[in-house]
Amino acid sequence: MKSNRILYIILFVLFIVAVLITLFYANKIVSLSLVPEPDVEHPTQKRLHFVLIAHEKDNPYWESVREGAYAAADKYGVHVEYLGPVRANVQDHIQLVDMSIAAQVDGILTQGLTEEGFTPVINKAIDKNIPVILIDTDAPNSNRHAYIGTNNYEAGYLAGLKMIELLGGKGKVGVITGSFQAENMNLRTEGFKKALELAPEIELVAIESSEISQVEAEEKTLKMLKENPDINGIFGNSALDGIGIVKALNRLDRSEDVKVVAFDTLPETLSLLTAGEIDAIITQEPYEMGYRGVEKLLEVNLGVELSGMTITTRSSVITHEDMLQRADKNYDNKK
Ligand code: BGC
Question: What gap in Å lies between CA 262 and CA 276, rounded to an integer?
C-alpha cells in the first residue's frame, strides 16, 4: 500500500514536470513568431555614400568645393565623405581613388589631374559600376560620366588678355604655375601663352612651379625676380599663388612696378585685389562644382545617362575697380 502511494507521488511529479516543460517551449514558439520577418519586398533604403577627393585636403579652394558638396548632400539626404592628400601628391591621390573603389562607395567626385595617371583608375571604377564625376580638371579620354568645371585653357587665355592690357602691350612676364604635373594648370599656361601671341612686344621669360603652396609661390617669385629683374608682370595660375607673389613683391619693394594677375576668389586674394596689390583675378566656381557634382552622382545612381557630358562652370576676370563698384560680391556663385 505504502509503495503504491510512493509510485503515485512519483507519477504526479513527473506529470507536473512534463506540463511545465510543455508550457516553457510553447511560450518560446509564441515569442519567436512575434519577431517580424524581414520585408524582402521593401528593404530599408540605404543612404548613398559618395566620396569627394580633393587635390589637397586643407586647401581653402577645396574647402569651397566641399561646402558645395555638403550643401547638396544635405538637400538630397546622401552622405559625402571628404578625403584628400595632406600635401598635393598624384600617387597618394590615385591611391585614395583606389581605396574608394575597394570600399565600394556609390560614387566618386574628384579631378583628372594627369590623364595617364588617372585614366586607368577612373576606368577601373567605371568597370566596377562605381560612378565617377570629374570636377576642376578633366581627363577627357577616360570613361568618366561627366566633367563639371572651368574651361582651363579659356581661363588662361583670359588671364593673358588682361596681362596685355595691364602692361599696355609691352614688357616681360613670368608665370607661377601650381604644378607642371596638373593638366588644368598646364592648360591655363597654354591659354595664357596663346593670348600673349597677340602682343609681340611682351616676352614670357620664366615659368616656375609653386606645388600649389603659398610659401613656395613666394620663394619662386623671389628666385624669378632675382634671375629676371626686368619682369613687370606675373601670372599666378593656382589659388594660393597670388598671395605668395604679393608677399615676395613686398619683400623686394616691387609691388608698385609689377602687375599681378591671380586665380580664384579666396577671401585673402580678394582683399589684396581691393587693396590694389593684385590687379586682376580669374574667377572659378568651386562651390558650384561640388554642388552639381553630387547632383550628377545621384542622377547616375538613379539611372540617368550622362554620356560623358561636359558642364562648363563660369570663369571671368575681376579687377580692382570691380571690387569697389560691384554690389554683388558673390564671385564664385554660392547658392
Ligand atoms: C585649381 C585647383 C588647385 C588649387 C590649388 C585652383 O586654382 O583649380 O586644381 O587644387 O588651385 O590651390
Answer: 12
